[in-house]
Amino acid sequence: xxxxxxxxxxxxxxxxxxxxxxxxxxxxxxxxxxxxxxxxxxxxxxxxxxxxxxxxxxxxxxxxxxxxxxxxxxxxxxxxxxxxxxxxxxxxxxxxxxxxxxxxxxxxxxxxxxxxxxxxxxxxxxxxxxxxxxxxxxxxxxxxxxxxxxxxxxxxxxxxxxxxxxxxxxxxxxxxxxxxxxxxxxxxxxxxxxxxxxxxxxxxxxxxxxxxxxxxxxxxxxxxxxxxxxxxxxxxxxxxxxxxxxxxxxxxxxxxxxxxxxxxxxxxxxxxxxxxxxxxxxxxxxxxxxxxxxxxxxxxxxxxxxxxxxxxxxxxxxxxxxxxxxxxxxxxxxxxxxxxxxxxxxxxxxxxxxxxxxxxxxxxxxxxxxxxxxxxxxxxxxxxxxxxxxxxxxxxxxxxxxxxxxxxxxxxxxxxxxxxxxxxxxxxxxxxxxxxxxxxxxxxxxxxxxxxxxxxxxxxxxxxxxxxxxxxxxxxxxxxxxxxxxxxxxxxxxxxxxxxxxxxxxxxxxxxxxxxxxxxxxxxxxxxxxxxxxxxxxxxxxxxxxxxxxxxxxxxxxxxxxxxxxxxxxxxxxxxxxxxxxxxxxxxxxxxxxxxxxxxxxxxxxxxxxx
Length: 611
Description:
Distance between the termini: 53 Å
Strand content: 15-25%
Largest sheet: 8 strands, mixed
């Protein structure tokens, strides 16, 4: 049960003031203890709610220090009694879920103390991760990934998948392949004629850390000692990998990065996990791959930063929120990144509200939340209307979208476009199975956040489309970085006991990469930046971002996945399209690393950075 926040408006004002350049309170952050003493619900309120739940026969767990919620478990009969309803089993498709037969209610003496309840309906769609490292998204003719960020291809009702298109009538050619390229344009492949050509560059093998640093202009920063030292970055997911530390170290050794120092990597884990066959969660291997990929992304970008992996007990939204709350209320990190998302309408309103209060506290404490925007565009193919995913759509989160990055032989950035992946299989008769460009498969997440009005920092910056005119909404993303599964980033992971390297993509790559760059900025600034968006939007015209534009001619790659060759037409992403200045596919753009870090450091009066 989430407790009412009687001082929520004052807390929000404080969070805005400490995050807004020009405010007298800018950068004057609170400690968790200071925040609790000023804004947390009263201890007497928590005690009254806990007492009521115990009287109904429920077992009350340990309350968080900020008294955000009162956890309780118990028999169905006790829940019926506590919430004046009847919980019944319902069949939803092939699954059986427990849910109230009518509205839950509380007596007036307790109701005024409670903001909402979560967990009574076990049919709530669980959070999923996105495409797993090295895996393919769903090909045309199969069910599309039902996940939140790239990598998995796992499906789930209500998750942010695009929905499966109708199967093409022609059988794709089997056994075909293309040679991947270590840099853009290294290799080409012959495909059926499209866009006035028959020869196309091939998909990437996976950019190395050196190539990523060269492309984003951070190589000299590392050489001069700006490595993220002193910053702590949390990766927030819901299942740990037992090989995470060894995978990071083995990958680092192969790519001339420092290995983890003693104490540089820690984990904060729950007492137990719920990842059984009925949990609705992604497979343990999939989440482990995701967690290692996120951690390696941060370490590759900021090898001096401390890493902490924070795991929720399972993938239900309320348990993810509990992990967010623990991260904030114990200030486990300065910067937090995630790799999951859900349709906003599928998340209980009580969870959305509680998480927003967490983000208010995080901003007040000077914490930076950097979240993946998702991998399936504006979600309209599955949701019916364009919308941003949650929690990236919260206005106190910096949402990171995706790009296709073209790095040259020396890693230099030769180009970058908005990430949109449209696949057309090549048939055994050497034709395309679908009309060009094929079937949209994945792309940078973005769109209006249905539950949140336009924040002040986006006013006058985000155009009426997609924000809206009569009631403008918060729009996602804010920034972007490489995410394309076909211009991927290289990772090393242990699969079935064997360490392998493979390319990975999706906004579950761009988000931790951006978090790592923020760790560089924090070291350069001499302290945490806090909630970034007001500063980023203010500095948008100062050259800290590459403005991502749409190339006016079709761009194609030759791609081989699962023994099938495809033409991948880039850039197209549902309704989202790169454009000058802010756009709904890449936000303000991708960071120009050294310029970005220097500008953020200068805001806090730190020493000049190496030129």
